[in-house]
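Why do we care about 3D structure at all? Because function follows from shape, and shape follows, mostly, from sequence. That is the central idea of this module. The next example makes it concrete: a single protein chain, its amino acid sequence, and then its structure expressed as tokens.
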Amino acid sequence: SQRQITTGGMIGGDRMIHHNYADIYAKYLQCYVNTKSDLTILECGILKGTGLAVWSILFPNAKIIGMDIDLNYTRDNLDALKERGAFGNGTPVLLECDQFDSNTSKLDDALGGRKIDIVIDDGFHSNESILNTFDALEGFLAPDFVYFTEDNPNVVNEFKSKYSRYKIFGYGELTVITP
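And the structure:
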């Protein structure tokens, strides 16, 4: 939220340790490790870019796109992440986006015809923003995608109701969607 941005209330970097999502991510990402060189990964809600850095190391040949309402935190941290070995094959594409807007024209330009294989939504965490982001991204998803939505235990039921054509799994505060 805007209040969190102005007061510095967002901390980030809690995906694997604090929330313990590592095993679930490993389960769904294993099929992508060392199998595709042209992956496209999009993370929404990137804060300081540490998630993007992890993806760049795990998938060194992937096109990585980060979306956030305020990219200043990420831009200020990019050099530090590069010094630690991230983004060896190129700086990620950064898009300033509000999850309450569609953002499809920005996505279309950034993707250049590519489809998104892996999505991580670690943005605003409200049901409305999560569903709006999925709606905006759905047409850009690859045929064999995986879509993670973090830190919202309730949205899984809305996904199941609205998107019965997909496989939808709830793991506490993590929802995973696959074709």
